[in-house]
Amino acid sequence: MSMPIESMLLAVNLNFLVFSVSSDDMMGQSFASLVPTVAAAESAFGLAIFVITFRVRGTLAVEFLNSIQGSGPFSLGERIRF
Description:
Radius of gyration: 19 Å
Structural class: mainly alpha
Number of strands: 0
Number of helices: 2
Mean pLDDT: 77
Largest sheet: none
């Protein structure tokens, strides 16, 4: 699930660099240096979710993925079937 976010961050990074070079401005290059920081934080957050899920459930099997769906205000009301 984090791979599409990573590819979007890389595309944004490339756009920052290209437009920075074409407009002869250093602002895009400074923003492009911040994008890997956001990507590293997102990867660390995803890894933390995997570690916590493994510690609580004891497994990372896809069959048990239905049990992590909550019942908050943004839930679907019924479980998603895989």
